[in-house]
Design goal:
By secondary structure, the chain is an alpha/beta fold. The chain has two domains: 175 residues, Flavin prenyltransferase-like (Rossmann fold, 3-Layer(aba) Sandwich); 206 residues, Rossmann fold (3-Layer(aba) Sandwich), CATH 3.40.50. Helices cover 32% and strands 24% of the residues. The strands form seven sheets. It has an eight-stranded mixed sheet, with helices on both faces. The chain has a six-stranded parallel sheet with strand order 3-2-1-6-7-8. It has a two-stranded antiparallel sheet with strand order 4-5. Bound molecules: cytidine-5'-triphosphate. The site of cytidine-5'-triphosphate has 15 residues, from helix 11 and strand 19.
Length: 390
């Protein structure tokens, strides 16, 4: 969301819009009423490919439309005010809601970046500097100004940064919010089903919810995510990452090692069946043949093999324990050559398999356990990624 106030530097904003569009951004524009004198709404509309707004109600007398500043504020991932004049900065700092731009600024929940532009003495005036400090204290990102010749003919500090510099500041901001940008994350989740015959299997109650929440959070942090997911009833239609659906531990094993060498972070949240039937009956086992004896053989331990083959991957396992939890979890951390283990105890109500909540203890390589209270699985996923990244 680009907010343009009435300064001469507004003439540079069309090229800023082109730069943002070239990067793939969607751009919408709000002008203060006086900014029309410096740049035409038509130019801005053509370049942004969106209607350009500057009043609370659009002007068609037969069909007035309210320009909802709250929706506009919520639409944006970043609100950029460029150029920001001394007048607009003052209105923003004091919530003086006298035009659509300031109303949208006050409603915006996204980060706000400000590119001030004015003459050198206006910029340096203590009243203006105080407003900039106030806005910074509110969490807004105030960009520096350039130094050089000003529209007044004077030389000094007060020029709006060049469009290319503003673009670079915005990109740097998004990078700083995406610590997993450029990283590949592999997550296993859900149960595995080990077939007995064409209609029966050995499985467990895992829902896959914890692994799905971890995958969403990794994607939010900028990662390329690959989720290897056992049988589930989760809604995965519109997830912003890759999902490979598998059924057995052998299939999960194959899917994992297809990717493992290229991965930066791997989290094994799946409840993999430790054993599978030696034989899978080709036809449904009938009662008349008597009580079957099903011989079990071990499944591959996927996580243990990931630990063995580990090069630069950061590897996290889960441990679901019922007694001597910490001792067992630390033993697993070492035995499987992990960088961290997330402990769930079945003794805790609301923790573990099918529920929407979980209660975990995170244990890193230093073996110091860090316990968290009961939380939604989405919040638990945030805690786990925070720990991994600190
Ligand atoms: N895991 C795996 N492959 C298996 C079994 C487990 O990748 N065949 C992973 C799980 O995804 C989890 C971790 O190993 O991250 C712990 O699994 P768990 O079954 O609790 O531990 P085990 O090593 O099997 O030990 P035990 O059954 O004795 O508790």
């Amino acid at each position: 969301m680009l907010g343009i106030s009435a300064g001469i530097a507004a003439y540079k904003i069309p090229s800023l819009i082109r730069l943002f569009k070239k990067e793939g951004a969607s751009v919408r524009v709000i002008l203060t009423p006086d900014a029309h004198a410096f740049v035409t709404p038509l130019t801005l509309s053509v370049l942004s490919q969106e209607p350009v707004l500057s009043s609370f109600v659009s002007e068609d007398a037969d069909n007035p439309v309210w320009n909802d500043h709250v929706a506009l504020g919520n639409w944006a991932d970043l609100m950029l005010i460029a150029p920001a004049t001394a007048n607009s900065l003052s209105a923003m700092a004091h919530a003086k809601c006298n035009n659509l731009l300031i109303a949208t600024y006050l409603s915006a929940r996204c980060p706000v970046m400000i590119a001030p532009a004015m003459d050198l003495d206006m910029y340096a005036h203590p009243a203006n500097q105080k407003n900039l400090k106030t806005l910074e204290a509110y969490g807004n990102i105030v960009l520096p100004v350039g130094e050089g010749s000003l529209a007044s003919g004077l030389e000094g500090k007060g020029r709006m940064l060049e469009p290319q510099e503003i673009l670079e500041h915005s990109i740097r901001y998004f990078y700083s919010q995406s610590p997993l940008l450029g990283k590949k994350v592999l997550i296993t989740a859900g149960p595995t089903y080990e077939p007995i015959d064409p209609v029966r299997f050995i499985g467990n109650f895992s829902s896959g919810k914890m692994g799905l929440a971890l995958a969403y959070q990794a994607a939010n942090l900028g990662a390329e995510v690959h989720l290897i997911l056992g049988p589930h009833s989760l809604d995965t239609d519109e997830v912003p990452f890759n999902i490979e659906e598998i059924s057995t531990a052998d299939e999960m094993h194959a899917a994992v090692f297809n990717l493992y060498d290229t991965i930066d972070f791997a989290i094994a949240a799946a409840a993999v069946a430790d054993f599978k039937p030696r034989m899978r009956a080709s036809q449904k086992i009938k009662k008349e043949t008597g009580t079957p004896l099903i011989e079990l053989i071990p499944n591959p331990d996927i996580l243990a093999q990931m630990g063995k083959q580990k090069k630069n991957q950061f590897l996290v396992g889960f441990a679901l324990e019922t007694e001597n939890e910490l001792v067992h979890a630390i033993e697993k951390l070492k035995r499987k050559n992990l960088d961290a283990i997330v402990l769930n105890s079945l003794a805790d109500t609301g923790a573990g398999f099918a529920s929407d909540t979980n209660k975990i203890t995170y244990i890193g390589k230093n073996e110091t356990p860090k316990s968290f209270p009961l939380k939604s699985k989405e919040d638990v996923a945030k805690d786990i990624w925070n720990e991994i990244l600190t």
